Structures are given as C-alpha cells and as structure tokens.
Amino acid sequence: MQSEVREILLEFQRSEITEHEIYKRLAQKTKGKNREVLEHIANDELGHYRVWKRHTGVEVPPNRFKVWFYLLVAKIFGLTFAIKMMEAAEKEAEEVYEKVREVIPNTDEILKDELRHENELIQMIDEEKIGYIGSMVLGLNDALVELTGTLAGLTFALRNTRIVGIAGVITGIAASLSMAASEYLSRKSEAEEKSPAKAAFYTGVAYVITVMFLVMPYFIFTHYMAALGLTIFNVILIILLFTFFVSVVKSLSFRKLFIEMVTISLGVAIISFLIGWGARIMLGVEID
Q1: Same domain (yes/no): 144, 186
Q2: Considering the entire predicted model, what is its pTM?
Q3: What is the distance between the alpha carbons of residues 114 and 100, in angstroms, rounded to a whole number?
Q4: Which residues, including other chains, have CB under 8 Å from residue 88's CB and lie 6 or more apart?
C-alpha cells in the first residue's frame, strides 16, 4: 500500500473512532428516539473504523480534544448545532475518498453510510428551541432594527449617554413585552402545533437579551460617540453569532444571511442617526 494512501486511511480511522466516541457520549445524554438513532450511528462509525483498521493493521485512539469540543458545543448550543457542525466537517472528508477508491473496495459503501447518517440525523432531531428559531429570529431582528435605530437617533439628539441608556432600557423592555404578546396572539390565531406561550417566551427572551447588549455601552461610557460605536460593534457581533447558528442548523448561506441582517440593521441606524441630528438642529435640543 502506498504511504500516502496509508496516511489517509489512518486519518479516516482516527476520524471514525472520534465520531464514534462523540455519538456514543451524545446518546448517553439524550433520551427517546434521538438516543436510539445516535447509538445506531455510533455503532456504524465503529464499524467503519474496523474496516480501515483491517487495512492499516493498527489501533488509533480518538481525538480527545475533538470529542471534548463537540460535547461542549452540544451542551452550549444544543444537539442539533453540534451534529450539523460535525456533519459539515465530514462532508469535506468525502472528497478525499476518491484517492482510496481504487485501493479499498468498501469505500463506496462507507460513503453511502455517511450520507445516510446525515439524512437520518436531519429527520430524527427534535429539539424544542430549534422548533422556535422563527420566534427567536423575530425577537432578535426586531430588537436589532428597532433599538439600534432608536439609540442612534437619541444619541445624536441628546448626546447624554445615561439618558439615552435609560430611554433605551424603557423602550426595549416595553417593545419586548409588545413583541411577545403579538407573537402569542399570532401563533394562537394560526392554530399551529407549537405552543403560543413558548413562542412568545422565545421571542421576548431574544428581544430582552439583545436590548441588554445594545444598551450596555451607554452605562459604561460617558462620551456618546464611544457608546454608539460599541453598540454598533455589539450589533455586528450579535448578528455574526446568531447568523452562524441559524445557517448551521438550517443549512442556509451564512454570507447571504449575514449581509442581509447587517445591511438592514445598520441602514436603519444611519437613517435614525440623521433624523436625530436633524431634530437636534431644528428643535435646538441641548442636554448636558
């Protein structure tokens, strides 16, 4: 066997035993149908490991860091997110299979198993918060657009960070309650399977968390431009993290979604900033 092919097989072997360990541990932390499917996939990964082992003739330990990393990701962001990330990384490995097809006759069979894994995972995942992503997106988007615009306008109109911060908190909390109530009534009127109360909860929580991140700089800085600058940075950071999360679990284009959300949020902020500047000049508002 060529040394290059052997190195590739050892990498495959290490990848399979690592994923076996990850799926096995995820299964131990899961209940119901999800656990059964994860255990089945863990066994398949072990079978693939043994196929590669027959050709390399050596034992390969799992990548402990990778196991720890995905278990941590699953704990923080949920089972769906962790599995989607792992499957995305596995797709990259599929291209390397081409190099060993002529040497290992089982390659096509293993590749089919890997593809079947992904389809099974997509169908079997039943995480509550994933089902309410629409509600979280609604709360987060509305908070980003509405509050970013409000803060930008008030910043240039008032130029007092403490007053702008207090106004932002009051506006944000009132708006979050309004959005949660609207989402509750909307879901109830549509008679969907998802709970209207839970949809309202996820909308409200996403809104309030976003409000806290956006308003925080106004209680840290005394200079209004420094506060606004950090708020804009927080806006981009929130959009970056949430867009990455949604793009992974929903298999959407990260770039397209990120650009769209940033453009809308910052566009509204610029328009509101100009409105605040104009209001300050026309009304002669002076607050120290």
Answers
A1: yes
A2: 0.66
A3: 16
A4: 248
